[in-house]
């Protein structure tokens, strides 16, 4: 879908790594602790995807008014609450609700011994990846519809870790 295969590869690799981290944090048997950590991780990952596509809040704010309005209109058209906006807790919860996600189930699974923690981790990683993949698709759709957007910034290097393979 992406006009830039390197950009898509970079973002998908970032999402996979961060989803593994989110799942790992969710294994912790402390109910609620993972929500805070994963919320921060999610906001950071979604922000990195937006910036990589030239659609971060600061980048959109610097666009001329007519182009900025078109970005906002297209973001709403594709169903994105996240493009060009600061990622607050309320915005993230709205996006999760858009996926039909119920955080209570994931938290409740923690109370079961080992199997519940594994289920909690799997559900958390899946939700994280699904939301990030959806945001990536929306960013790609907006960029494809607006070829006059300035070129996105150069991609930062992702650190090499064992999770990259």
Give a description of the structure:
This protein has helices at 5-26, 33-52, 57-61, 65-78, 89-98, 103-108, 114-145. With 165 residues, the protein is mainly alpha-helical. The chain has one domain. The protein is elongated, with a radius of gyration of 17 Å. The mean pLDDT is 80. This is DUF697 domain-containing protein.
Quick recap of the structure?
The chain is mostly helical and 165 residues long.
Keywords:
mainly alpha; 0% strand; 165 residues; DUF697 domain-containing protein; elongated; 7 helices
Uncertain residue ranges: none
Total number of distinct structural domains:
1
Distance between the termini: 23 Å
Helix content: 55-70%
Radius of gyration: 17 Å
Mean pLDDT: 80
Strand content: under 5%
Categorize the overall geometry. elongated
Describe the biggest sheet? none
Task: Set down the secondary structure blueprint.
Blueprint: H1 5-26, H2 33-52, H3 57-61, H4 65-78, H5 89-98, H6 103-108, H7 114-145
